[in-house]
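Standup notes, structure subgroup. Blocker cleared on the LV4SOB2L input:
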Amino acid sequence: MDTVFIRGLQVETVIGIFEWERRIRQRVRIDLEMSADVARAAATDSIDDALDYKAIGKRIIGFVGESEFLLVETLAEEVAKIVRDEFGVAWLRLSVSKPGALRGADDVGVTIERGERR
Ligand SMILES: Nc1nc2c(c(=O)[nH]1)N=C([C@H](O)[C@@H](O)CO)CN2
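Run returned:
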């Protein structure tokens, strides 16, 4: 299985369980790996046969920027659904984190895996 990935995508959004977090925008970081047939795209050298990371990245930026979830878990699940349903991705591994949210830690968040690897 091949993968197409997006690493370190940063988007500002409303997220968090505390009252003060509902009044500000915070930066979340998204790391995404998606199964893809890279050999086919390489053979034709056509974006039509590729999983377009730019199109997916723009869709995620738009969705996350407009969202107002409490938990990073919910944000991760909803982004995973969009990527799978709208871009036909069979398997993905997705991390959503809030850099600096926990004093003393570089980053905190969740990683989910959805679908079957082909
Ligand atoms: N598993 C989770 N734990 C916590 C979350 C979360 O989204 N998932 N969120 C918070 C707070 O919003 C925190 O990020 C504020 O600094 C705490 N724990």
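Discussed briefly. The mean pLDDT is 97.
Next: hand off to the docking folks.
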